[in-house]
Every structure is written in C-alpha cells, then in structure tokens.
Design brief:
Low-confidence stretches of chain A: none
CATH architecture of the largest domain in chain A: Orthogonal Bundle
Shape of chain A: globular
Largest interface: A-B, 26 and 34 residues
CATH topology of the largest domain in chain A: ABC transporter involved in vitamin B12 uptake, BtuC
Distance between the termini of chain B: 45 Å
Helix content of chain A: over 70%
Oligomer: heterodimer
Number of helices of chain B: 17
Radius of gyration of chain A: 22 Å
Strand content of chain B: 25-35%
Helix content of chain B: 25-40%
Strand order of the largest sheet of chain B: 6-7-8-3-9-10
Number of strands of chain B: 22
Low-confidence stretches of chain B: none
Strand order of the largest sheet of chain A: 1-4
Radius of gyration of chain B: 24 Å
Distance between the termini of chain A: 17 Å
C-alpha cells in the first residue's frame, strides 16, 4: 500500500523528477556552477518572459489547444515603441508603461474580437501579427536609429523590471530577501495545513499527515534555498516579484474562480459549455485579450534586461511559451493543464538553456540537445502516465 | 442439429482491479442469430473484443474455438481473416470519404502501391445492392443519414467476406423504420447461411430476430434462452435474467402528484433552420405544460422535437424565431442566450450526452456544478468544499455508481453519465425540464432509475417535457402526449386515451408516408 502510493506520487510528478534529474546532470557537468547564487538570479531573469507568456499561452491553450503565434513579434513591436517613447521622445517611465499597456489592450481587443466573434481561426489571426509586427517594429527602430536599435532605457524603468528589492553589494548577505523567503515558506506550510484541516473537519478526502508534512518540508526547503542563494547575490530581483505575482494570480484564477473553470470546460467540450450557459465567445475573447496584455508585461522584463530594443528581440518567444506549456502537461487539444505544470515546463527549458551556456556548448548544438531533451521529457511523461492507467 | 461454429470456453478477462469476464461460455451455431444481452458494463463488449482479437491471445484465459479449431488471435486482422467481423456501436466511417473508399479502408483492392478504383467501386456497388442501399458507392458518407451509414458498415463487413458478423447495438441511433429494415436484412442474411451475433438493449428486437439469447450479468453467463418456442420470449423473461430480479413494472407509478397551474406555454412558435433559413424546423407549434406534469413529445427522427426543445432553451438552435413564450402566465422576451434560459429556470437535458452534454475530460464534480456555478461561489471564487458537498449530494440522490466524485465522467458507463447530466440540470434548479431522449443507450436497470427521478421531479412540482422516440416510454411515463411530425404538432392526447395505434395513426394521417 505504502509502496504503491509512492510510485503513484512519482508518476504524478514525472516532469518534476525529470527537472530534478536534468538539474543534477548539469550540476555535475558544470562542476557546481549552476548551483551558484548568480545562476539562480540568471535563471529567473532569463526566463521571466517564458513564465509570463506561458501563463497567457496556457489560457489560450485551455480553450481548445489554441495558440498565439504573434506574441514574439508583438514583443518586438512594443519594444521598439517603448524605445521611441522613453529614449527618443523622453517620456516618463510611468506614461510609457501605460501607453504600452494600452496598445497591448487595443491589440488584444482586436485580436480577441476577430477570433471570438468573427470566428477567424486563432492560428491564422495571430499569423498576421507574427508576420507584420516584427516588420513594423524593425522599421520603427531603423527610422529612429542608425544602428537599428534603441538604448539605453531610463534607470527608473530598468529598476522597475530588472532591479533588486533592497539591493545590497555582492558578497553581503541580504537579510530582507532571506526573511522574505522564510515568511513565504511559512505561509505555504500554513496554507497546506489549514486546507487539510478544513477538509478533514468537513469529512472530505485529504492528504495524510505524513504526505502533508513531506510536501511542506520540500516546498519550504526549495523556497528557502532559492531565497538564500538570491540573498547571496544582491537580493530579490524585481523580475521575480512580477513573475511570482502573475503566476500566483493565474494559478488562483485557473483553480479557484468561475471564469477559470469556464476556460477548462470550453476547451473540454465547447458545445456542452455553451448549453450550460457559459458565454463561450467571451471566453475566447478574454483568452486573447489577456495574452496581449501579458505580452506587454513580458516585453518590459525583456527590454529592461537587454537595456535596448532591437530587431531580433522576442524571436521565437511564442515557441518558448508553447513548449513550456506542452512540456508542462498542458493538453494540446485543450481543457487540461495547470499553471504549476507550465512553470515546471518553463523551468526545465530554462535549466537546459542555462546549463548548456554554462558549459559553453556551441549554439547550434544547444538547439540539437534542447530539441531531443524536450522530446525525451514528454515521451517519458506520457509513457509513465500510460502505465499509471 | 447444426454444427457449432463458435465456442468460447471459460473466458476470463481481468483488468487491473476488476474481473470483467469470469468464466464466460458462449456457443453459437452455424446459421443462427444469437443475441447477447445484459446491462451496461455486464461484459458484452469485452467478450466481443476478446473474440475479435482487440484483446489479443494471452491477455485473457480460456479458449476460442472457431470452426473446430482453437484460435489465438493477436489482432483484429487475424480474426477478420477467418471471417469474424465486428461492427461497432459508434460508426467508424470517415465522413469526408466516399462510401466505396470507406468500405475498403485498410482492405484496399489492387496492387500494393496502386489502388484499383474501378474495381473498388464496382465491388462496393455489388455489396451495397446486397444490403439494399440505393446509393452510389461514390457518394460521400457525410451526405447520407445514420440509417444508411449503418448499412454501409454492414456492406463493409460483407466485403471482408464475413462468415460471423457481430453487430454491437446496430439500431441504437436508428429510428423505428430503419431499425425494422435492418432487422429484416439480418433475417434475410440468415436465410443465406450467415451467422450473426447481435448485442442490443432493445428487447423487442431480440425477440424478433434472435434464435438464441445469451444473458450476461456481472461478467458471467447467466443463461441461454431458446427463442424457438411458439410464443416469442417475453421481454419480462429476458429482463429477469439481466437484472437478476423481476421488474414487475418497467415504468414506476407516479402517485398522488398534484398537477397544478400552467407553468410554461408557447404559442405559434416557429423556428427556421440555421443554414437554410427558408426551411421551418418548428412550424407554428403551440403547447403548454403544467406544474407537476410530465408531458411526452413523440415523433419520428427528424420531426423537429430536438429543435423545438433547443429553441425554447434560450434559442440555442435555429434562426428567425417567432411566437410567444409565457412563463407563469407572463409573457417572456428571452434573449438568444442559454444563460438567460437558465435564469428563467428552464433546463434542456440533451439527447447527445457525449457530444454536447458533458465535459468528458472533467470530473463528476465539475460537470455537476457547471450550469449553476454561481450557487457555489461568491464573488466568482468557487467554494471547493461546497462544490464537493453538492456533487456528493447528487451522487447519493441519483445513485451514481462511482468511487469518487473526482472521477472523470469519461470513465463512467452510459447510465451513470446520463445521471451526471441530470444532476447538472437538477442542481440548476429549473422549473421546466426539457428531457431529450433521457434513456437513450442505457440499460434497463438504469432506465428504471431515471424514470424514478422523473417522477420525483414531477412530485416536486417541476414541469417535465419528455422527448422520446420510444413509444412505450412515452406511453408509460407521460400524463399527456403531444405528437410531432414534420415540424408540426399533429396530435395531443391524454395518456389514458393514448395507444400505440392512435399515435401512429396521427402521424400517418398528417401526411408522411400515408
């Protein structure tokens, strides 16, 4: 019985195990440098856009395996516009952010309306943006700059999306960051145990005390480890706040709200959802509106990190977001998938990228390795799920 | 005594945790029609899957002896080579292909690298003639109705040189006319020496065609009944074997239900086809239903029953609506919105539970709460515990057989799925329930339970509109019956006065086939 439940747990978390194994693999290969404080910061900053776009892509995919091909090119266009606003025009950071968000909303409304109310297949509707936006962005950049890129963004903008909270010098232990980690870990434990208690009180199925304890210990350990590492590297990156905030919100929306539920049932059976009174068109509309807004926020983290807007910014971002979802177990036909799964998928891709650049593998081989590792990960996941049945 | 064509001896098949078949024995004589009956989940389909090699040799215990030889099939091709062909309940035709292409799919005529289309279509036409289907084999499958598609499946089986034909619920999606034609076709095949096994829930069909009837219950063979007596085997006799007890009355009595005021009334209700707006799918229909009343709507397939029900439910089907809808005596201008219909306390329980009723990839819990999420959430945040409690409540109330309400609906049997669908709409707390074929494709025991639920609903003062193409069901369950044909109501009668003859006469007199 005990053994059976253990294998069940392992199978349920197959992708998490793959992540740990891949991490350990790179730990050996890089001689421990992937475990260094700066690697942790790097992992978060480098992949912030994958997490943010992944959350948006998740919502689109839930509605029936629909994707947004345009988000990478839209990042390029928004980056170029951001450069024009902040660098060329010298607008304030706040106003520029607001304008870029509004442009995101505008594109989202148009795209959402085309898909939900004019019934253009999402693939086609977003292909237009994929083709047009990068061209538009590049031409904006080249007409405003001889080099074809705009830099640098104002310090206030960079601090907001690529700074540190309570920064300290390198080598000085950042106590606020560590304490924040401890607090977060305690909060997680509290949530695990209060939900368990309330379920038990009402007589529902709940985790056993042992598994709740193990879960709490593991999650807290990971949180405290990450925050300790970050504390050794200058403090909490502001990127982490943005990413964590967005992931928590979307995790809540998908698992606890009626609107989140509607996304799942629309993807599970559109007709059944409609006949149950779900406004299916509105859900499709919201999926793409939401995606465009999240793309704007992802753009901020990306251009703040690169400190410049350039023609290639955002290249293949749509593929990164889609792979994060698919690797994270989001169904390609819709109706199934979680934010947590997507996060694991995105982290796996991030670890592979980081590990390979740490051992300075040739960029072409990096792609080859990435392709095969992702395929292997998904094969492993699907095969283990099958055995589970 | 004819010789035994097929013998399945002591077949035992276990799935992880369940014994699906437990020493089942089946003997089929050459040239007979052998019916296999049993409740859903009794193991009929599993047995046929063992026979046809879908569950290959080695995954089950026992022997299959066909034509005197022990067979060890490792896949479906092996069994088809010997002439054992199975036609599944869910038609397996590709809609975008022609009849001929479908018939020879995976069995193509010609060379290895080039299909001989002329021969394909010539052969296909020959078999189509044998099954009496007057269509060219070059017709696209999607353009013909389900009745004809079923015939294509049979022609396809014949093209595989079938000696033993297995039909799994062949008439479940056919109307009475087509069903009868199919059964007669089976009888004519029998005369030509074909052996057939038919799996069905419709006991009148069993009595009509079968030579022998084998009853399976809970994975074991209960008995084999001979149907060669002077009188055909009575349905009660078969049911007794299937459920292990005698159901004295197939339709539970409704007692002491007070029928009250008129709750819903429609007048001059007209709806047009969404794709061909000049065609009326519901034509000037006026009807009403009282509180606590069960009103049956009977009609042949395509009479417009589903269209009528769906158009009442927030105009979810059709275009160019006209007519009046009164609820509780007041005129209601309903928007074209299902959510609006639910707010007005109308529920439509679809005939197609898999297609547009349930989200199969989600749990019982999620499906139960779907139409009334507002009731278990505050400020759009779902109260997970309350949702669980509601699902549990309906699981107990409707006797949904499942280990947990977290179980995916796709894993449930048809009868239990139907109960989940009912649970969803009961939780939406409607005053008017439009039940469209609520017992389609579910077994006798589950049917009885559904009838009891209908009675409980009526007793609670709800209005129930029961749409069905099974005449006995309409007669047995309704207080009042509307008869629909060609988009119009062609008759109305009280249940006490109604008989099968009267209803069929009303339909015939209205024009069709007269």
């Amino acid at each position: 019985m005990e053994k059976k439940s253990l294998t069940a747990v392992l199978k349920k978390n197959a992708m998490l195990i793959v992540l740990v194994l891949v991490y350990l693999f790179f730990l050996i290969l890089t001689g421990g440098s992937i475990f260094s404080p700066s690697s942790f910061t790097e992992l978060i900053n480098q992949n912030a856009y994958v997490y943010i776009l992944g959350a948006g892509m998740l919502m689109c995919m839930l509605t029936g395996g629909n994707i947004d091909l345009s988000c990478g090119a839209f990042v390029c266009l928004l980056g170029a516009l951001g450069g024009v606003f902040m660098i060329v025009q010298g607008m304030s950071t706040g106003l520029s952010i607001l304008l870029l968000l509004l442009i995101g909303v505008f594109y989202g409304v148009v795209l959402g309306a085309l898909i939900a109310y004019v019934h253009i297949p999402p693939w086609i509707a977003t292909l237009a943006g994929y083709l047009a936006f990068r061209g538009l962005g590049t031409s904006i950049l080249s007409s405003n700059s001889k080099t074809g890129s705009l830099a640098p963004f104002p310090v206030s903008f960079q601090n907001l999306f690529y700074g540190r909270v309570f920064p300290t010098e390198k080598g000085v232990f950042n106590w606020p960051c560590f304490l924040f980690g401890v607090l977060a870990a305690l909060l997680v434990c509290l949530v695990i145990f209060t939900t368990r208690n309330s379920r038990l009180r009402k007589g529902y199925e709940a985790d056993s005390l042992k598994s709740a304890a193990i879960k709490s210990v593991l999650v807290s350990a990971v949180i405290i480890l990450v925050m300790t590492k970050l504390a050794m590297d200058g403090g909490i990156p502001t990127t982490l706040l943005w990413v964590a905030g967005i992931l928590l919100i979307y995790s809540f929306i998908t698992s606890k709200t009626t609107i989140g539920r509607h996304f799942y049932v629309v993807g599970g059976n559109m007709e059944a959802a409609r006949l149950s009174g779900v406004n299916t068109r509105r859900i499709m509309f919201l999926a793409y509106l939401n995606m465009a807004v999240l793309t704007s926020i992802a753009t901020f983290t990306v251009i703040a990190r690169s400190q410049s807007a350039y023609a290639d910014v955002g290249k293949n971002f749509e593929m990164d977001a889609i792979s994060a979802c698919v690797v994270g177990g989001v169904s390609a036909s819709g109706g199934a998938g979680t934010v947590l799964g997507m996060v694991i998928g995105a982290t796996l891709i991030g670890v592979i990228n980081l590990g390979m650049s740490l051992i300075s593998l040739d960029a072409n081989y990096q792609r080859v390795v990435k392709g095969f590792v992702l395929l292997a990960a998904v094969v492993f996941d699907i095969v283990s799920q099958k055995k589970n049945k | 005594m004819a010789n035994i064509l097929l013998e399945m001896k002591n077949i035992t098949k276990t799935f992880p945790g369940v014994k699906a078949l437990d020493t089942v024995n089946l003997q089929v004589e050459e040239g007979e029609i052998h019916a296999l009956v049993g409740e859903n989940g009794a193991g009929k389909s599993t047995l046929m899957n063992v026979l046809s090699g879908i569950y290959p040799h080695g995954t089950y215990e026992g022997d299959i002896i066909y034509n005197g030889q022990v067979c060890r099939f490792s896949n479906i091709k092996d069994s088809e080579k010997l002439g054992i062909v199975i036609i599944h309940q869910e038609l397996a035709l590709v809609p975008e292909m022609t009849i001929g292409e479908n018939m020879y799919l995976g069995n193509e005529v010609g060379h290895k690298f080039a299909i001989n289309w002329n021969k394909t279509y010539a052969e296909a036409d020959k078999y189509l003639k044998m099954v009496g289907l007057e269509e060219s084999s070059k017709t696209l499958v999607k353009t013909i109705g389900t009745g004809k598609q079923q015939l294509v499946e049979i022609a396809k089986a014949l093209a595989k040189k079938a000696k033993l034909l297995i039909l799994d619920e062949p008439t479940s999606s056919l109307n009475e006319e087509d069903s009868r034609a199919l059964l007669d076709l089976m009888l004519s095949f029998k005369k030509q020496g074909m052996t057939m096994i038919i799996i069905t829930h419709k006991l009148n069909e069993v009595a009509y065609v079968a030579d022998k009837i084998t009853v399976i219950r809970d994975g074991t063979t209960i008995e084999t009944i001979d149907n060669h007596g002077k009188e055909p085997v009575s349905e009660e006799r078969i049911i007794k074997g299937m459920v292990g007890r005698e159901i004295t009355n197939r339709f539970p009595k409704r007692e002491g239900v007070k029928i009250g005021e008129v709750e819903m009334e429609i007048s001059h209700w007209t709806v047009h086809h969404p794709l061909y707006p000049e065609r009326k799918v519901v034509d000037d229909v006026s009807m009403y239903v009282r509180k606590g009343e069960v009103v049956g709507i009977y009609g042949l397939m395509g009479a417009g029953r589903t269209e009528l029900a769906m158009s009442i439910f927030g105009q979810s089907y059709g275009v160019n609506f006209s007519g009046e809808l009164k609820l509780d005596g007041k005129n209601v201008k309903m928007k074209k919105s299902e959510a609006d219909a639910i707010r007005h306390k109308i529920a439509y329980v679809t005939e197609d539970r898999k297609g547009n009723g349930l989200v199969l990839s989600q749990s019982i819990k999620v499906n139960t709460s779907l139409a009334n999420l507002g009731a278990i959430s505050s400020h759009t945040v779902i109260d997970g515990d309350r949702e669980y409690a509601v699902a549990e409540e309906y699981r107990n109330k409707l006797k949904i057989k499942t280990p947990s309400v977290e179980q995916l609906v796709g894993n449930l049997s048809g009868g239990n799925q139907q109960k989940v669908l009912l649970a969803k709409w009961m939780f939406a707390e409607p005053d008017v329930l439009l039940l469209d074929e609520p017992t389609r494709g579910i077994d006798v025991g589950a049917k009885y339970e559904i009838y009891c639920i209908i009675n409980d609903l009526a007793a609670a003062g709800k209005c129930v509109i029961l749409i069905s193409s099974e005449l006995p069901e309409v007669l047995g369950m309704s207080d009042r019956i509307y008869i629909m044909n060609e988009a119009k109501i062609v008759g109305e009668m009280k249940a006490e006065e109604a008989t099968q003859e009267k209803i069929m006469t009303a339909i015939l007199r209205s024009g069709r086939g007269a």
